[in-house]
Amino acid sequence: xxxxxxxxxxxxxxxxxxxxxxxxxxxxxxxxxxxxxxxxxxxxxxxxxxxxxxxxxxxxxxxxxxxxxxxxxxxxxxxxxxxxxxxxxxxxxxxxxxxxxxxxxxxxxxxxxxxxxxxxxxxxxxxxxxxxxxxxxxxxxxxxxxxxxxxxxxxxxxxxxxxxxxxxxxxxxxxxxxxxxxxxxxxxxxxxxxxxxxxxxxxxxxxxxxxxxxxxxx
Amino acid sequence: xxxxxxxxxxxxxxxxxxxxxxxxxxxxxxxxxxxxxxxxxxxxxxxxxxxxxxxxxxxxxxxxxxxxxxxxxxxxxxxxxxxxxxxxxxxxxxxxxxxxxxxxxxxxxxxxxxxxxxxxxxxxxxxxxxxxxxxxxxxxxxxxxxxxxxxxxxxxxxxxxxxxxxxxxxxxxxxxxxxxxxxxxxxxxxxxxxxxxxxxxxxxxxxxxxxxxxxxxxxxxxxxxxxxxxxxxxxxxxxxxxxxxxxxxxxxxxxxxxxxxxxxxxxxxxxxxxxxxxxxxxxxxxxxxxxxxxxxxxxxxxxxxxxxxxxxxxxxxxxxxxxxxxxxxxxxxxxxxxxxxxxxxxxxxx
Lengths: 218, 350
Known about the structure:
By secondary structure, chain A is mainly α.
């Protein structure tokens, strides 16, 4: 063995440490902590045909992270434009994704009325303070306690508003991808209106989403 | 040509990577793939040296300031991680663990197009992105094998994939290979550097409305918040104001040192972008002067100012957007003007 090879062999543990870490735990870097909250899941929510899409949807059903839904849509659109894909499976994938929105979107959500990022202390004279005043600067103990409670409520309000906003926006984006992908399936893979109508008619997606996909076939 | 590998090398590779290099062919004379197993060692050493040099280069660029130092260090780790990940991919390919699928040689030229996921700003073919922004990349005819430096791809092969811009500003280059024909596209990624507000409602309370005998200066407004510039989309960005104390004088002197203790959790952005402003956030700002109970003056001149650092975050990236001044200025007659990030409201004493 040459000196060069011997030196490399001796240095191997040092050189390889970061590679080993990356090889053994490639997911650890990119993962975000899953949300602990869970939502009830309908028994009729459809499964995706493509295992890659199904895996991402299972991830979404477990964590409810918007990224997982977007990842599922990425996987569903991966073979757009390729003549060898399965048109029936593609439509099934999009139906499975859009069914999650139908299940999880809050129909009462009003994106035009966002909450304030800070509030004033509650009570008749709470308005003497600026919104976001530090609780320690609120002299009245009762007002201070009520203010701390109100801050926490507003934090949850902001969080829910943010989550709903992201879900609505993801729906718009993914619906656009779905329509393009279905149009491609029609043109490239010969997906017929009759087949699509049959699948869509029984799908648990919203009427507007169903119509959007149908119009993509025209 | 690298030195021939011995059994000790084989054992080391097998122990380290969990594979038998001899199963990929005769390593001493070259495996079935294009490179020899000996060159794997060179690749490893080169990758390690590159990462080490890179660390040194970036460390010298770290700017003053605790936040920049922290971010520099975190960015350094991220970028070093990317280098290592690239090297790992290279090693996997050399070992045949992750060989890109063969793609058909295209007939005629190939086109590589990009379309931002966000519909705003209007130019969806733009190559300037906000941190964390997503872009659909399409190669036609496809499929192709994809590689990106400095960004995440949804898949390494396919016809239509999604690129997610990095968490920090920088440059990104993506290459697609269709049967040996290659195309590249470059992106520039930026972080928010501006805060703008647009007033949506105003506030002023008379003495009667407050329930006090004599009027007190006060003014306020609610405003939509935007993070600029307006030529990218910052929907992947969250923001947070810092805790800061007011500097007040004159009729507002009682507010001096009063803490501005904002929401503890970072708030997100929508995917809406307005020209001249930037990306709209998911929350409004409530700018309100408050008032000083019991004050009776003939000269109401006074001022209260908060200079609030606003920070952005996106994944592991974060930094200072700007220092935003919120000021309340009252003249002798008690007329009060409150302003912040381009929005303002003036109310007379009543």
